[in-house]
């Protein structure tokens, strides 16, 4: 069974990242293993000029993996923008319970919309709309939570995306 994907969407600077930062610990306390995928519509550069990984990439490597005890980073060329399920299927192992994606507002993934001023401030596909988190009243047929209702949002996520059973091998890793 593929790892489920839940998107947090909203306009730029609406508080998506902050809310995700607050909901992840709630899920982890409930025993979830969570991966996140962030959409950067305007591109990004994570590697630091002068570092060995930057030098390898600059020399022409299509992919560079940096590995240390407890951490792994991958810098790879992709021919086009990937969908979240392509990232999941190519790069994440099956031990995760949930992928939280920031972005992909026009895709049909289950999603929670973060609204600061008014619903509709950014066009969002209503397909898969699970809930709204807002500082304003919103009249929709989905649960609406305040910006500080993090435990309630986590409870909704836990109900909608139950943790999968772990094998004995996975419990040891």
Report on the architecture of this protein.
The structure is a single chain. This protein is α/β, with parallel strands linked by helices and 173 residues long. It has one domain: Rossmann fold. The protein contains 5 helices and 8 strands. The strands form 2 sheets. Strands 2-5-1-6-7-8 form a 6-stranded parallel β-sheet, sandwiched between helices. A hairpin with a 2-residue loop joins strand 3 and strand 4. It is globular and about 55 Å long.
Question: Concise description?
Answer:
This protein is α/β, with parallel strands linked by helices and 173 residues long. The protein is 27% helix and 23% strand.
Strand content: 15-25%
**Any idea of the CATH topology?**
Rossmann fold
Number of domains: 1
Rg calculated over all Cα atoms: 18 Å
Number of helices: 5
Mean pLDDT: 83
* Major sheet size, sense and barrel closure: 6 strands, parallel
Oligomer: single chain
User: What is the helix content?
Assistant: 25-40%
Number of strand elements? 8
Unreliable residue runs: none
What would you call the structural class? alpha/beta
Spell out the helices and strands N to C.
EHEHEEHEEEEHH
